[in-house]
Structure formats: C-alpha cells, structure tokens
Give the backbone structure.
Amino acid sequence: MRVTIADVARAAGVSKTTVSRVINTKGEVDGGTAARVRAVIASLGYVPSSGAVGLARGSSRTVGMLVPSLTWPWMGEVLQGVVDTVEAAGYGLLLFTFNRGADSVERFTTQVSARAFDGLLVVEPENTLDKIIALSDRGLPVVLIDDRGSHPDEFPSVVTTNHEGGASAARHLLADGRSRPLVITGPEQFGCVRDRLGGFREILPTDLVAVGDFTELSGRLAVERLLAAGTPFDSVFAHNDISAAGALRALRAAGRSVPDDIAVVGFDDIPMAQHTEPPLTTVRQPTRRMGETAALMLLGHLGGATAQETVVLPTELVVRQSAPLAANSGPVNGSSASASAHRFP
Amino acid sequence: MRVTIADVARAAGVSKTTVSRVINTKGEVDGGTAARVRAVIASLGYVPSSGAVGLARGSSRTVGMLVPSLTWPWMGEVLQGVVDTVEAAGYGLLLFTFNRGADSVERFTTQVSARAFDGLLVVEPENTLDKIIALSDRGLPVVLIDDRGSHPDEFPSVVTTNHEGGASAARHLLADGRSRPLVITGPEQFGCVRDRLGGFREILPTDLVAVGDFTELSGRLAVERLLAAGTPFDSVFAHNDISAAGALRALRAAGRSVPDDIAVVGFDDIPMAQHTEPPLTTVRQPTRRMGETAALMLLGHLGGATAQETVVLPTELVVRQSAPLAANSGPVNGSSASASAHRFP
DNA sequence: CTGAAAGCGCTTACAG
DNA sequence: CTGAAAGCGCTTACAG
C-alpha cells in the first residue's frame, strides 16, 4: 500500500542504501544516479516514514512543549512563535498541558521516557520545577520560558526585563508629574513580581503596595480599598493588564477620571489592553519573540550547539490613553520607548 | 543505555513476546509470570519506545491538529478542549499552523505522508478545504472544527448554531423594544455569516446591514458611517465581539449612550467581552466543547467507531450591560438563555 | 561511487 | 500459557 524506500530502490534499480544517501544528501553519490533516484521519488510520491527514521536514528525530530494552560491571554503569541520556529526547522511540535494534576504529570513523564520527543520547551506549571529539573538531569534538553522569573540555573531560559520594565513604568509616570502611585502586584513569591516592584520603586518610591494575584478582582479590590480609606494617590501600576483592567473599572465606578485624576499603567500588553476604557498604557512583554527565542535555543542545542545561557528580552512601554505622554506630548498612539537589554543574536 | 523490552525479558527470564503480552494485556499469560514481569518493568523503569511501537503497529497514537492561527482570541479554548481530550485518551497532539502560505502547505502534507499522526483535527485555514479533502480521500481520518460554517460533507465536523444564535440576539433586542437594528457582519462568503444574518432577520427584519470583516476597525467604521448619514438606529448586532468592540468605541466617541440610546450585542464571548465599556452582551460559542467534541469524534473514528455525522453544538446568549434584560429585568450578570440544538451525546 | 547486512525496539502470526 | 522468528521502514558501519 504505502510507498517504502524499498519500492523506490527497486524502481530506480539501486540499493536502499543509495536511496537513503540521496534523501539525506550524505556520502558521495553519482550525479546521474542521484537524479534518477530523485525522479523516482517524485513520481512515486515517496515520503520517508517518520517513525522508522526516528527509530533508526534514535531521534524523533520532534520537540515537546509543556504549558500550564492554553487559555492565558498571552499564551497564543508564545505558541505561535514556537510553532513557527519549530516548523521552519522541519521539526514537529508535541503539545502537553499540566492542568489535571498528578495524572498529567504521570502521563507526561511517560511520554518523555518513551522518547516521543528530543527536547522540551516549558512554560513552568506551578510547583513542577523539581520534576523538570529531574528530566533535565536525565539528559533531556530543556529550555524554560520563564514567565514568572524563577531564574533556574539548571537549564537555559528566556526571560524579559522585569526590573527595567517596572522602572520604565515609573519613569513614565514620573515624567507625567505623578508622585503618589499605587502598585498592584502579583503573587509575592514570583520573581517577576519582586523584580517589577523593585525596578519601579527605584525610580518612584512608594509604600502604597497592594499584593494581588493577577486577577481582575484583585485589581478592583485594591483600588476600592484605597478609595474607601481615603488615601490619596494619583496613579496605578498594575503587574498585569488584567488587574489593571480591574483598577480601571473600580476608578470609573467611583467617578474618578483616567488619566486626569489617576493614570494607570499595566504590564503584558495582551490584546485586551487596546480595548479597555480608556485604552491601557502598558509594559509590553515580547511574548512571541520569547517563544521564538526559546525554540531557537532548544533547536540549537539539539543541533549540537553548546548550551546557551539565559537570554533576557527587552520589555517596551506602549503608551495609550490611560497614561499618556506628559504635557508637550506627541502622538499618543503607538509611541513606545524600548527598554535597554541584552539582545538575543 | 536505555532500557528495552529485551532487558526486561532477560531480567524476568521470559521472552520478549511475553513481555509484550503483559504490557498490552493481550493473550493469556500466567498470573505469576505476569506479576513477575510487571515487577521487573517497575524496578527497571521500563517504558516502551513510542517510535518502535508505532513502527511495529503501523500507527503512532498521535493526532495532528492544523490551525490557521494560534493567536485568535478563541483559539486557546478550542486547543485546551482538544489537548485535554486527546491526552486523557493517551494520545499525543502534534500541532501545525498554516500561516506561511505555500511553504507551510508543502511541509504539512509531507508530515501527513510521513505518517507522523493517525488522524487530523482542523480549524479550516483559508482556501485549503480542497487540500484537506484530498488528504481525507487518501484515507486520513479528518474532523473539522467548522468555525466559519463551511459545512463540508466530505468528513464529519463540529459547528455551532449560527442561525439560532443570530435569532437569539434578535429576540433579545426585540424583547427590549428595539426595532431598528444595524447588523455588522463578517465576510459574506462565510456560511456562519449568512446563517447568523438569516437567523437574526427572521425575527427582526432590517435592511441596515454593513458588511464587515471581523476587525475592530470594520465595526467602528460601520457605526461612524451610519451616524454620519444620520440614519436612525437603536441597536447593533455584530457578528463577532471584536467588531462589536469597535462599534462600542464609535458610539462612545459620538456621545451615544450604551445601552440607553443604542443596545449592542456581539458574537463569540471572547475574554475581552467582559472588559469592554460597558461589558458586552454576546452570543457565546462553546469553543472549548467544540474542541473536546471534535477530538472525541476523531478518537472514536480511530478506535474503529463508524464515522460520525456532523455535530451541532448550541450557542448561548450571555447578557451583560451593553444590552441588558428588558424592563422588569432580573439580575443582569451571568443570566443566559440556552439556544435549542442537537446535543452531542 | 555502491551494496549486503545488521540493527533500531517493538508486535504479531505461527507453532508448540 | 509461552517462545522463535519475521517484519515494520529506515540508517549506518563495513566492505568493496
């Protein structure tokens, strides 16, 4: 039924070895012979069986990707960056999630042992860093897309400039004359949260810090509490766009004008940030490039390149109406200031 | 290095055949022998090589999924539904996109021929239905997640109740006393667009129809033009949430109040719909269930079940502030009216 | 430049 | 209940 290398060899009047050699362009093959073999391959529509090639070669030309959730607003961009890069290199992408607890872990580890893929890209699922480290120790090439700033040193990772991102938000607010900012953070144990807060406070010290959890509700509550307490503030820096949206809603409900009374800056630049009222000024994470970069690092490693260090990709302040440029101003839409950072080659 | 079935056989003092039999629990094996083999497997940490199993069995226990883009707002939910279902069945998911034109097509077709996966789930990339049909004709099991209402009859598909969804939007507006609706459609050639429009007009006839393209801009322009022309209207039904967001923005910019002057209803219920100003009433597509259902259909087919017919999943009207319930009202948040439809078992 | 043969790690008739 | 052997479709020393 299906066309095999033996069929090609027979039709071309050569051995399977020779066919294999022309396919993989390795070893010397007579020009005429090669042309004949290629013609037969084309006419028969032969395509090597990936399973057989994998078995014989001991590698699958496939990379795995493990993510905690596929429905997070920035995950699509990361995935797109990964898929594009991996496909362009002729690899396949096997996708796994970790959303069913122990059961998922079990099944996933099995897949690893089954050698279903050659290397792994991971957006760290909660509390699984130790498992990932174990896999890495057993020889599986791993690259982490380090969205929460875990900074592991067991394997290479891709992060963004969380510290500088926080600082850029502070500089922007400062330039606009704001001096009493409220910071709505994510969970305290995350490295990215500490970095964003640290960077911000270096430029614009404040003790108005509400620990949130990246949800809309936590952003809303933080603002409501501060308003209820009567504490004065003139701006908000939220550690993600979702909680910034919550802050916007609470401010609007309380009749405060954004940005006239209170300026608001978020973090991430998810698609929603363009559609809040008013549109959100935010620190953009280069999510697609993070995916691309991580994939390139992993592919490089699989290709034998020496293990890459951690790569830091720059955030970028995207200015919209919720915190426009100061007085003298310029066009408000689309202007941006790049944060300095080490660039991936 | 790696543990093989031969190592297990040797350690257990049996043949590879017997080990294979206990792994796959097929054929009669003595209880004691089986127990011994299982003990050895556990102690050695043996996991069968997926590549070898695939080669020997002629199937890969993997399904492919082809999508036009991973960054569309509802794609994450579809993917999550697919991945959860596929993983639970012990299958792997190989992900492909079609965003680089002819090059992608080529590479993808090759993967198919390489037998990298046993069946295919597809969210139809533009102008590729004929290619997919060709693959299906060659014997590849295919299930379509038919987001644009193409209704192919070459293979089973999962759709939502576009006609009834449009009708439910109309009934809601009608009950609120609206009689001059503007409909902002998607591209006319899409079946889902014709269905949504048809269902809507059966309940609430109107000739105010602006052909859009599912972008925010097209929604904004449609409203701006109508306002500029001075044509009176009291409501908007947009064929997706993004263009509804554009309509909201144009109305706000023109100083029209939503919902007091103009009520707005969208379609999809993407995450953003909760965060527009005001939050958007919309016809919810059961995207995650569409993914789950398509995956179940494909897995069933691979498992030898007879080919399933097309399955239609119900939309659901989600009522928020942009078009609240009429006068006597009830709680505005989260109430919903299920559209009748054929349910997948 | 080319080919015969072994091997990758499994499964599956076939025979006992 | 169990095993020897062939076979899945490739690649890769090895020999010429």
